[in-house]
Specification:
Layout: H1 8-26, E1 41-45, E2 49-55, E3 64-69, E4 72-79, E5 96-103, E6 108-118, E7 121-128
Antiparallel strand pairs: 1-2, 2-7, 3-4, 4-5, 6-7
């Protein structure tokens, strides 16, 4: 007999998942989260740029959408599940849609954002610019 550690939080999560999810699927309801999974990101900064590195293994370039609108950078996409006629013993990886959004600092040029994908990582280079200074108006007396 194997000894396993009792974790009440896991048991409670399993209970709610088993209780709610079958009914949601039968009734055509969506899961309560906005994304099926969320890629992990690292954000670093140098003198010239911010760099966002997102883990997107097995996500094709054409399945990723990057948008910039009103100071928000949004990354969305989908990792498609493999369709195989094999008996599965364990599935721990997440599949489906994902979405992440980030507020852009004032010193980032929206038009100079570059994206590249390599070895399961998405790299977003956010070039720094001089932040816009407030404009002072002179009042004329007549």
């Amino acid at each position: 007999m194997n000894i396993t550690r009792y974790t009440p939080s896991r048991d409670l999560a399993d209970f709610f998942e088993r209780f709610n999810w079958p009914f949601a699927k039968e009734n055509g309801l969506q899961a309560m989260t906005t994304s099926d999974w969320v890629p992990s990101v690292d954000i670093t900064e140098t003198d010239d740029e911010f760099l966002i590195k997102a883990e997107v293994p097995e996500v094709k370039k054409e399945d990723i959408k990057i948008q910039v609108d009103k100071g928000m950078l949004s990354i969305s996409g989908e990792r498609k599940e493999e369709k195989e006629d094999k008996k599965r013993h364990r599935v721990e990886r997440y599949y489906g849609s994902f979405a992440r959004s980030f507020s852009l600092p004032d010193n980032v040029s929206e038009k100079d954002i570059k994206a590249e994908q390599k070895d399961g990582m998405l790299y977003l280079h956010l070039k720094k610019t001089t932040p816009k200074q407030p404009k002072t108006l002179e009042i004329k007396v007549q």
